[in-house]
Design goal:
This protein is 67% helix and 0% strand. The protein is an all-alpha fold and 129 residues long.
Length: 129
Amino acid sequence: MDSRKIALNAYRVMAYITGTGLVVLVCIAMPIKYLGGNNQPVAIVGALHGFFYMAYVVCSLVLAERCRWRPVRALLVALAGTIPFVSFYAERKVTKLVREMPPPSSRRPGGRSVRRPEGAADQQPDLRA
């Protein structure tokens, strides 16, 4: 299995978990805290969201490294987990972007495609002096 596919799947799972946790925190736990005077839901959901957000950032950085993204894109994807509902949008965009990328075996480390002349693999250099 391609390492990018594994990183993408981990990123997608963490994007949904982080996004759901943030929506629960902002839309349910915080109103309970400020309207109902109960701090317990914010303490629990906030801690869980913080833990999962750290895992989300790690997954997004691993994916960025595997896909050779520029730092700005990696930063924007990582920040998507801090705004309610944006992680869901970013997950869809990132998934589409990664799936449209060419397979890693046809790319050089510099990002250019590898093109070999016909029969190049069959030719051996003459090392005799």
